[in-house]
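chain and backbone:
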Amino acid sequence: MLVECFIYLGDLPRSAPETNEITKSTKKIKNIIFAIPAAAPAMPPKPNTAAIKAITKNVIVQRNIVFSLVIKFAHNN
């Protein structure tokens, strides 16, 4: 009865792939997915990004020094 149903639909049940084939395809897909983000950080978007970050950091530190001096003098007076 089951075979007649597949003949009526025009399709035969496919045989299941072996476990080794499933494992290979799964590993291949996983390696492709994880290889994409690993390659991205190799090239910085702009070469002077590090310099800009350092300048910004120095400006923030200088502002904090000035702010702490103002607070220190305000408490002393």
